[in-house]
Every structure is written in C-alpha cells, then in structure tokens.
Amino acid sequence: MSPEPSSSDYIHLLVERIKAATQHCTRADGSLQFESDTMRRDLIVAAEQLLMAARSPEETLFAIAQQPAQNAALRCLIALGILDKLPLNGDSCSLDDLAEAVGAEKTLLGRILRACTSTSLLNETSELHYAHNALSRALLPPANRALVTLMYDYIGRGVFALPEFLRERKWQDPGSYADCSFMLGSHTTLPMWEFYEEDAVCGKTFDLGMQSEMVPALSSGKQGGNFPFGRELSLPNTTGESQEGDQPTIVDLGGGRGQGLQDIRKNHPELSAARFVLMDLSAHVYYLRRCLHNWDDGACKTILSNVANAMDATRSRLLVTDMVVDNEGAARGAAWEDLGMMAIGGIERTERHWRDLLDQNGFRVHKIWRDDSGGHATIEARLK
Ligand SMILES: C[S@@+](CC[C@H](N)C(=O)[O-])C[C@H]1O[C@@H](n2cnc3c(N)ncnc32)[C@H](O)[C@@H]1O
C-alpha cells in the first residue's frame, strides 16, 4: 500500500526520489546534466509532489488562486521596461534609479517589484535594490517577452472570460472560431485571426511571440516537434547519393514568420537542397498559374473556396494565369488546346466562363491583364 500523500513517509519517499535523481545527474565537476528528458521531468514531478505534500490543500488552492497576481507582476515588469534598465553584469540598481529611468512613481514601482522578487522574477539584493537573475535574463530575448505578452493580453483575456462565456451557453457548447471567449474577454466582434490582422500591436506581438523558444515541446533541439525531418525526408538513391528530383518540398502552412522552417533548416543541414515554402495570412497574392485549366468546375470550386477562405478580404488578390478564350471568334490555338485539356478532364475557359466560375465561388474580377500574344492572360480577382 502506498503511503498517504500527507504522511511523513510519503514526503520521505519523495525526498529520496529527488536525492537519487540529483545524484544520478551530478557530474564530477558538480554540474547537473540530465541523461534524458524523462529523467528531468521525473525530478520536476517529484519536486511538485513534494511542494503539494508540504502544503495543506487550502494553501495549495490559495497559491493557485493567486496566480493571476503573479502574471500581472510579470506583465508589468515587461511593460515598464525594467529588464532593460538593470545592469547585465549582475550588479544591482536602486529603486530610486529605476523609478527615474522608467518614469514610474517610486512607491508604486516598489510594490510591483516586491511582487516580482517574491516570485523570483528578479533578485532583491538588499532593501530596495534589485538585480537580474536567471528568470529575468530569460526574458531578455524580445520573442520571450512577446510570448508572455501574448499569453496575458490576448489568450489570457479569453481564458479569463471562459467561465462567463460557457455559463452563457448553459455549459452545452464550447463555442467556435467565430464565437469564442476571446471575443468576450477582449470586447471585440472579431475572431482571433481577424483581430490579429486588424490590430497591428496584436499582429506584431503574435508573430514575435511565435518565435519564442519558451514553448518546451518546440524548443531548440526538439527538431520541429520531434518529427525526424532529416531521417524521414533525405532520400538517398540506390548509389547512396541523393538526386535533384529526390529533394523534398516542405510547405509550412500557417508558418508565421518562417520560424518553423528556420528550425528545420538549422537542425537538418542534410536538407539544405530542399525547397521550403512558407504560407501564412500575410500572403498578398495567391497565384494559380496553369492550374485551374486542368480541372472541371466542381474541382475548381473546391480549390477556389479553399483559397478564398485563406484570403484577406481587403488586401489579398487572386491571380489566375490561364488561357482566356474569346467569347466569340475563339482563336484556333485556344480551341485546340481546349481539346487537349478535355482529354485529361480539364477545360480552357472563355472569358464568360471564367467570370461565372469566379462569381459563383465568391470572387469578383477586378481586371483581366492581356496582351496580343495569344490566349494566356492573368485574371486579377478579389473577394466579393
Ligand atoms: C499559432 S501561429 C503558428 C505559427 C507557426 N506555425 C509556428 O508554429 O510558429 C498560427 C499561424 O496561422 C496563421 N493563419 C491563421 N489563419 C490563416 C489562414 N487562413 N491562412 C494562412 N495562415 C493562417 C497565423 O497568421 C499564424 O501565423
């Protein structure tokens, strides 16, 4: 029978587990080096269980309920710009100097910094003197600060509004993309990605935050969420050498500013010849050259509606470069090409056909860019 979680035997057991794990991972020079992630995780779990066992259930609950205040202290620390005012060499700075440097009222700042030091976000070196520590240093990369900001200012507001949002739905419905607690918490009618596009600060914070390495499962060394890109995708031929045609193309859909692709490139030099394609909301142009003529109207509907879903209503343009056959008096070349397309289930469309197809799938034709050289033209369309 295992001991009660509040008994001294249980605490003793946890202490032994922690001691054994620490001894196992201690190198000759006294540094700590974990053999595996599992080992490190075990130590963390045991330490958390120890904390829980040492506290009464009421204390644990109170600590959980106090977490919003910790988060607010962290967010204030970032917003005040304190991290940039503290000496990087570990020297301390007085409250007076910090208050002057960031333009905050001294007593107010002192209370915020007290909340930070008591949470180990900063060191208090002596009364009203502060210095960087490991946690505050980890906040120096702008991407890490942006991630914390994003979690507090945007995701956090949605999380806080969840109980009210779900209660309004009588706990029957978790909501949807276009009706979610983020909208309630942020007092907006816009869902996440529309808000992100509309609000420049949110967009910038989000993009930068997504480049942070603070997310454990994606941090450096995890090589793209654990998938062994190099091993799975570098395809040697029978002679052991890879050929040009073997090189993979990796399309990162919703890839932000390219951080995921950069990670793959960095961690897998063996994929240096691969093609990396980044696709995200910021695409101004969706270009389909010589593609739609391969497909019948039904298939084009699927393609076009997927593209339409990804497009920004005001900024994005669809460019379709294809044969645009004259409605009347079609050129011979175009008519013959059309039979070629017919043979594979496609079609060369007349201008009228293109206009109908685009209209039926949510687009308006803005302009058809033609020249005299033949039937190919570029149809520029926007969302209706
Ligand atoms: C949570 S971020 C993930 C970014 C990146 N994949 C990463 O792991 O760092 C989601 C991304 O999806 C993008 N996104 C949202 N809707 C999109 C759409 N309709 N088409 C393309 N990208 C979209 C956003 O702009 C954002 O960059």
UniProtKB/TrEMBL annotation:
The keyword S-adenosyl-L-methionine is annotated on this UniProt entry: yes
Pfam family, one: Methyltransf_2
Molecular-function annotations in GO: O-methyltransferase activity; protein dimerization activity
Residue ranges of domain O-methyltransferase dimerisation in the record: 71-140
Catalytic residues in the record: H293
Record InterPro entries: COMT-like, COMT_C, COMT_dimerisation, SAM-dependent_MTases_sf, WH-like_DNA-bd_sf, WH_DNA-bd_sf
Keyword tags: Methyltransferase, S-adenosyl-L-methionine, Transferase
Domain O-methyltransferase C-terminal: 283-364
Biological process annotations from GO: methylation
Protein name (database record): Uncharacterized protein
Organism whose genome encodes this protein: Xylaria multiplex
